[in-house]
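Hi support team,

I submitted a single chain yesterday and got back a structure, but I'm not sure I'm reading the token output correctly. Could someone confirm the output below corresponds to the sequence I sent? I've pasted both exactly as they appear in my results page.

Thanks,
R.
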Amino acid sequence: MTDIPLTIDERESGSVFAPKFDAAGLLTAVVVDHATATVLVVAHMNREALDATLATGRVHFWSRSRASLWMKGETSGNYLTVEDVLIDCDQDALVIRARAAGPTCHTGAQSCFYRRVEIGDGGPALVKVKT
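Hi R., thanks for writing in. Yes, this is the structure output for that exact sequence:
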């Protein structure tokens, strides 16, 4: 990982891993199930969380509300084990393919995305979906 400035071509087509963190020092991480591609969780990583994820093979995030590093599963045991890390074209977002050791959501759902928005006569409503 480097902090060396890259040209647009180097960033988009090169082989240098140079994640571009936002003004708050964060990038978006989308974690999907490695076998089904189901979106499990979307959260944020700072450099420390990304470094810890790459070093340990377990997904870490930066909690904006607690202003602290946390490893998914550190209290529940439902770790997310990294299978693959993909970065987007301008290197400011990640997709992490992972194996979940149990439910991913703090509610006990397999995925944090367990409700669908349905539009009816009364307007939008949330409906649970099987995850």
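A quick pointer for reading it: The mean pLDDT is 94. Let us know if anything else looks off.

Best,
Support desk
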